[in-house]
# Entry
Amino acid sequence: MLQSINARTGLAHGAAWAESTSRDIDLAALQARQVARDFAASTTGLRATLLRGIGQRLLFAREALVALADRETGLGLPRLNGELDRTVYQLEQFALALDQGAVHLLLDEPAVAGAAPLGRPRMTRIRVPLGPVAVFAASNFPFAFSVAGGDTASALAAGCPVIVKAHPAHPALSLALAEQVQAAVAQCGLPAAVFQLVQGAGIAVGVTLVQAPAIAAVAFTGSLKAGRALADLAAARPRPIPFFGELGSVNPLIVLPAALASGAAQRAAALAQSITLGAGQFCTSPGVILVPQGEPGDGFVRELAGQLSQMQPHGMLTAGIRQSFESGVQAWCHVRGAQVLAGQAGGSAATPCATLVQVSAADYLAQPALQHEVFGPAALVVRTAALQEMEDVLGAIGGTLTVTLWGIDGDAAQVTDEIQALVRRATDVAGRVLFAGVPTGVAVTAAQQHGGPYPASTAPGTTSVGLAAMDRFLRPVALQDAPDGLIQRLACG
Amino acid sequence: MLQSINARTGLAHGAAWAESTSRDIDLAALQARQVARDFAASTTGLRATLLRGIGQRLLFAREALVALADRETGLGLPRLNGELDRTVYQLEQFALALDQGAVHLLLDEPAVAGAAPLGRPRMTRIRVPLGPVAVFAASNFPFAFSVAGGDTASALAAGCPVIVKAHPAHPALSLALAEQVQAAVAQCGLPAAVFQLVQGAGIAVGVTLVQAPAIAAVAFTGSLKAGRALADLAAARPRPIPFFGELGSVNPLIVLPAALASGAAQRAAALAQSITLGAGQFCTSPGVILVPQGEPGDGFVRELAGQLSQMQPHGMLTAGIRQSFESGVQAWCHVRGAQVLAGQAGGSAATPCATLVQVSAADYLAQPALQHEVFGPAALVVRTAALQEMEDVLGAIGGTLTVTLWGIDGDAAQVTDEIQALVRRATDVAGRVLFAGVPTGVAVTAAQQHGGPYPASTAPGTTSVGLAAMDRFLRPVALQDAPDGLIQRLACG
# Structure
């Protein structure tokens, strides 16, 4: 059964309702397949109208949606209003990309006379939608990574019907959002099966959805454990399907000596804010802070610990997430060489305590338990003796959404070979490398890359944020000697 | 042990030699990882020089290489000379792409002032090499899909070290080709581990290679059985890696009524040539021919059978491939409703017999055994009552490298909704859709797409032929607020 829970009080709100059955899910997948062909053939203009229609409805329903989201997540009105804005902006960005064309037609090469390999027929490279996409919503962004979030927007933009598996942490909001999307679908004259919602608190709903023969691809944001299990199921199907999973990230932030020379206090304050933003429930929350041994690194760490001690993170999304956070932090505190610098108190029943634990690079590298993500307002400070140790820590992390490097100057002449090697190491393990600012906050733009080597993503070449998110749901097809009229119909929306 | 076999006589040539051991392979992978960073940081100019150097060496050694390839494959000098030309052309195309830039730098967006979502930092989208790539060579294209073929060329172009797992059907040629590549690597002043060769006749070598922790991606061309087993291993690694596998294709060719109205005899002749080209050992060989019931379809099929009866395919690549072909054809001949139209004789000991078997669409759809590829000079004619049955056959095939549609006019006004639905069905199941000509022969160009839904490819969004083949080995990274000097060094080769 599904039940709306008040995140702040832990109390049930309203009556419980039934989960989707296997039969519901199989039927939804079949219906999605039935409409997939026509939706693939829809004009890009119609799909842009659909995305804008969804955005408009979210804006009109803002007050009720944000209130509902706040009750179910406890994330607070300012943050949730901002997230709703971002979600609407995201829908509009995909609509603009559709307006601008080039979604389906990539390249049209004229025939070249003569024998191969120089001679060749006319070749037209287009992209076609994959078919029905299963979207697994996340708990921590109830708008931007949920029912009408980036995965749904990019799949609809690509011309793929969507079945969202709602996150059980905000089940009532999921229904309310689905109603808005369904109304926009109907207003465009599109069949209802272009967008469907299924719900369930256990693993069965997700398993059934990933295994449904009609599903062509899966987009997932969530935990490593659940994500890997579903990714394995997708790969084991008789006909494997792509699984675009974002499974977690520790987001190392590297403080180079130059960053300690001036402005260190402001940096420490900004970092403390980033670690505790949304109670640390961001996939881009900085989880490992690399700081050189000795002064002035000691001073920076003291400042950071002091700032964090004054932070009062709000309550976490669910009791389960809170429990995982506490046990993760406990594990950190008890490893060899761990020094607890902030957060000993353990927090109150309702809210977690911002926590900072320090270890040496040698202890970090020797203890794989430290290399896992702890989701919540906590970070591990790793003290390093040399740039090479920073590289080694990045190597041990292996895959992350972001690496932040503080203290690399704008002057190219000052970039030593050693620093360049560190930057290359950062690009080896991350989808996004920052040279200023904090990793929380992800711009929705064409250049964005929200992905990275496993486990940050199960498909590191793809992104779940930004315009390239649409690429996940389009497959290239080369048309050879195609008549003009057909190219126009297939590729020009 | 590895042994060079004369494909025409089946006799051993020269002494046998040892396979690579697990230890050899692990060492090769480690050495590849050790040089990966520096090779990733090499200039695109150096990599272009490397590719051109390989091409030059293949041309200089042409006579010896082609003679050796002919002895080990029996494919004949004209075909092998042409294939060597195509291989050199392919290397040059990647070198040109590197010359033209835009391999590493995709997009540089200036910062926008203001609050998110409109405001954003400077974002620069680049692409970085994945790391060491394992390339599994194919038997049927000893140059173009082997040691110095498209997978190797595109991985080296991307800046990834390569370990080729040679195909045991042309082991001596593989060594000779590897020597040429190694000499070109040395001439560029690059470390030897930028390109390595491992050899083995059994499955152990491939398994060890796919499981080696240092391997970052796999490119494979070969059988469904071996490819799926290796793809499953790649997906099951603690840190899964991308597996770009081309596992087989039936390449349906659809003869629409309009194509029977005129020129049917010439079309039948061209099709017979395509079916038997290289003894049918092309991944794009047309394996299922859909023809409308009744006259004039009957006449077309008679003509095709007559043409095929006169064809004398040369010997097949290996005794094992020949055996699979014979048992595949036997299976076709004994299904319900099968009519053998050409090829009853079964061929000689040395050469296979071009074979044509006919079934109704209903029999085809009811018997999944018919829906598998038979690799060799044979095709299945499926007689259909209506366009809908043609769509159903495509649906049953599910994934194929190509679909060919004969009889769609250049005049857009004549493209009915029914024909358009058939074309969309073709784009649903294929990587390349042809409207003229035959599917054998794949142009090496930017618009090409040699891939398609599973089992044609394990990564249907990627291609193993054409310039986009390089995309498989590059991963996008967003740089946020990066200093100009660093962008230049990371992204501009």
Summary: The CA atoms of residues 250 and 287 of chain B lie 5 Å apart.
